[in-house]
Design goal:
Peptidase_S1_PA, disulfide bond, Trypsin_dom, globular, about 30% strand, Peptidase S1 domain-containing protein, 4 helices, zymogen, mainly beta
Amino acid sequence: MFKSIAICLVLSVVVKCAPQAEINRPNFDGRIVGGDDANIEDYPYQLSLLYHGSHMCGASIIGEKWALTAGHCTNKLAAEDLSIRAGSSILQSGGQLVNVTKIYQHPSFNPDTIDYDISLLELAESIILTKSASVISLVDANIKIAPGTETIITGWGKEHESDNFIPNQLQVVEVPLVSNEICAEMYGGWGITDRMICAGYVGEGGKDACQGDSGGPLVVNGKLAGIVSWGYGCADPEFPGVYSNISSMRDFVTEISGI
């Protein structure tokens, strides 16, 4: 389940589906399931990534002229197709609109395995930093975060997997990290690499990201640690959400942006 409703709505190629007897490939995730209404002032790093003016994915402010999102959100798109909205809790309204001037998708991004699922967006002008729009620090390179650590996920993705709409109000949910070993076992034939981390309530479900949340932030102890990437279903107790592991790709971010 690619958690990118933007790709679903705009390109009509990304869908969430129930797991099959044999896992062929993941779907992008993109919604917050089991979450609560959120105020952008509490999560001022959250961005809406727009495709020709319509919400496509989430993203995060990592510098005045830099945003971070998922590689699958930018795959095969041009910078002139994209812009970001900063500083608004409400989808498609308010805040600051800034055009994207260049996309730096990880050169090793693989659309079939969803590995190296990260893209940097250079903005045409600086975001005006306010209490509703501010930079979030990134985790350090090559660190390991303990399973069970609570994470915060925000976005405008679907609130229920069967929904045909996404909410106007920003949503937030907290879920614990799951070890890559357990996550890999649960996904069976699909590879969980070092460029991925997993989070969710194993055996319980009920809370997750979903379509529309793709590219959005997963935050640990006030630092950006993950990017909403993929999974099967939404809030499925058998399949934790899978997120891009920023720590393992931190050098790429620094090389491109200097951050």
